[in-house]
Amino acid sequence: MTYEPVPLPDRVQLSPDASLESVRAFRDHMRRRHSVRDFSDAPVSRAVIEACIETAGSAPSGANQQPWHFVAIGDPAMKARIREAAEEEERAFYAGGGGDAWLAALEPVGTGPEKPHLTIAPWLIVVFAQRYGVRDGERHKHYYVPESVGIACGLLIAAIHHAGLVTLTHTPNPMKFLNELCERPENEKPVMILPVGLPADEAHVPAIAKVKKPLDEILSVF
To answer: What keywords does the record list, in alphabetical order (predicted)?
Structure first.
């Protein structure tokens, strides 16, 4: 393919005052986002999940190669298999495989090897990173894959929150079992499982999760 410029198709420019009002409203909305482990089993429509993934698919990527694939799983049996495999890895991690420092860092978060959210949440979204592409049987290099997939995951999480749903970033390691289970090729690496749904009536979050670094710790201005 060759470079072909087209006029900017969309403009979302705002006045300075409207821009500040809009971004502050979005900031406040995103501050209400929480990583939730207590899910309701209430159903969520496939159309909502698809719209969230379409949002993720609009993310910028290195050379516009879009090196990602998303697998949405609502099948209870498949979710149960993922939970079984993930908890096997988690038991080894919490038995000492994670190391003392990592386990100590997780104590205020209150996590453990049991992952009931993987079967209770109505949907699981498994994110795969395409380490390289395959076109017409030929292998071709992808660029900035971790950065590109990370940006897409950020948009996906924002979209899930915008839909009035909750999620949790779950990263069992290793996750190679997901390739076979989700019928994905060897050039794709599973990087994250996102359970998606509504919070349970009795949902809780760890107090430490509400402690965020202030602006002066995360921003430098020159």
So the answer is: Flavoprotein, FMN, Oxidoreductase
